[in-house]
Design goal:
It is built from two helices and no strands. With 157 residues, it is mainly α.
């Protein structure tokens, strides 16, 4: 537009030059418009490609997250089952320990009974040893008595 004004100012006001100049400008504008359309078409194609890539990425992320959540759920279910088994085993161990405690208390009572019985036996053994000592003395005295009763011709003298 500025060029047209400069042409008119320079005195070249012929109609043909102005029309030629305008036709050149129109052709240049058409060429620029077609180049812009090609650029927009390329950009549109690039934008579509980027959109498709983003959509694929989102789908992959969604599938991965679904897989992760499903795997986590499966792991937690397995862990829950293991915890139930462990809880049952711990309960069984607690019952066994209570039973052992009861058995130990009864054994403690049995041990005190055994200790009393051993004490009684010790007293009886002690009295028996006194009796055996007494019998031993009596036997010695009987042997002495028999020695005095043996006739002089006896071979046992």
């Amino acid at each position: 537009m500025y060029r047209l004004l400069s042409v008119l100012e320079d005195g070249l006001s012929s109609r043909d030059k102005s029309v030629d100049h305008l036709q050149k400008q129109i052709e240049q504008n058409k060429l620029a418009a077609s180049q812009n359309q090609k650029l927009l078409a390329k950009r549109g194609l690039i934008y579509k490609f980027v959109f498709v890539l983003l959509a694929i990425g989102l789908i992959m992320v969604g599938v991965d997250q679904h897989t992760i959540v499903r795997s986590f759920d499966k792991d937690m279910t397995g862990m829950s089952k293991d915890m139930h088994v462990m809880m049952a085993e711990i309960t069984a161990m607690r019952v066994a320990m209570e039973s052992m405690s009861t058995d130990m208390h009864s054994m403690s009572g049995d041990f005190s009974t055994v200790a009393r019985d051993v004490s009684t036996i010790a007293v009886e053994v002690k009295s028996m040893s006194h009796g055996v000592r007494g019998m031993s003395r009596d036997t010695r005295e009987m042997n002495r008595s028999m020695d005095t009763m043996t006739p002089p011709w006896s071979p046992f003298r």
